[in-house]
Every structure is written in structure tokens, then in C-alpha cells.
Prior knowledge:
Number of strands: 8
Distance between the termini: 41 Å
Strand order of the largest sheet: 4-3-2-1-5-8-7-6
Largest sheet: 8 strands, mixed
Radius of gyration: 17 Å
CATH topology: L-fuculose-1-phosphate Aldolase
CATH architecture: 3-Layer(aba) Sandwich
Strand content: 5-15%
Shape: globular
Helix content: 40-55%
Number of helices: 7
CATH superfamily: Class II aldolase/adducin N-terminal domain
Amino acid sequence: MILRDLREQIVEIGNRMVVNGLAHGGQGNISAIDVDSRLIAITPSAVPYHLRTPEDIVVIDLNRKIIEGKWQPTSEIALHMQFYHTRPDVRAVIHTHAPYASVFGIIYEPIPMVLIESATLLSGPVPVAPYARPGTEEVAEVTQKAMGKTGVACVMANHGLVTVGPNLEQAYSTTLAAETSARLVILARAMGAQVKTLDEAECIALREAYLSRYGPKPLPR
């Protein structure tokens, strides 16, 4: 089986999405690209997460040709391919129906940055892309445009959340950061409080510090 590691990771991330309340049934979709072969592992359409195995994950090329698999890939294939064709830094794409982040997609308001931990992953407010019908080339284009050349997250109007990253773990951590920020903002507003957002320059500085310095550091021997 080709791309076994990526397919196993995608199954694992999908199960975590269900546990974290970000998806259910077969909703949402995940993909990752292999740097060497330029082949893409992507979730199948409508197969429930709890039934998926690595063999259910489809392998396609950059022209969307199925290389290995037994199912049709997700109907949101255009969304994933849009990022792989336009963003060389993107190696994983995750689309969820994260409920709190989706609230901002129905009021058409960016998710503000209120947490240091979220700013390190997101670097600033999460934009909302204009509405476009799911599964179309249009929704892929407006989402990628709204995220920009260096963005890592975007809320899809009336739909859900999309995050990207250099790998699946990073993209999923970004998903959780956006969802946590959205949840806390909603809770604060439910208390009648006005949220205090982080300064834009501080968000950028936090992101740069995270990228340059964060990670496990072994003790000197």
C-alpha cells in the first residue's frame, strides 16, 4: 500500500476530530501530500470515521487521478487541490465543521485573537471567506484567496473551518487553536463582556517566536 504512513495519520486525525466534536459521520475532509512522490492521500466521500481504515484513504495525483483506492475522494477535492497548486508551503489540509468556529461563519465575522496560545499558531484573526457552494471550484478559490499567501486558517461562510500546515499535526493543532479561540469569545460575549484582543504586532511576534524557537529541547549531555 503506497503512502501508508500518511493514510494511517489521516485515519487517526479523523478519529480525533470526532472525539473533539469537530466532525461526525463522514463530514469534513483531510488530505496530505507526499513531498517526494507529489502524491496526495485524501479522505473518501461519506465513509464514516469510525469505519475507516488506511485502505479507505484514497491516493491521487495533482491532476486528481486516482492512483490507489476503492472509493471516490471527498467531494471537496477542489478545495484541497487549490492549496497544493498555489501554496508550496502547504502539505496538509483539514476541513472540519467545528461548531464554534462555524458560528463566526454565519455572522460573517473573523475570529479575533484573544489567546497567546492561539496567536502562536494563527498569527492573527481568522478571516471568513465569502459564501460559495460546497464542492465547487468557486468555494476552493474564495477560501484560498481569503486565507492569503501565508495564512493558515479560514472560516468558510455558512459552512465550516479550513486549516493548512506543513504536516497533519500542525494543521490539526491550528484547527484546535481556531476552535478554542472561537469558543472562548462566544463564552465571554455570553457573559455580557467585551473581549480584549491581542495587538496585531504582538500576534505576529508570538507567531515568529513559536516558529523559530518552540520545540522539544534535549538536555546537554
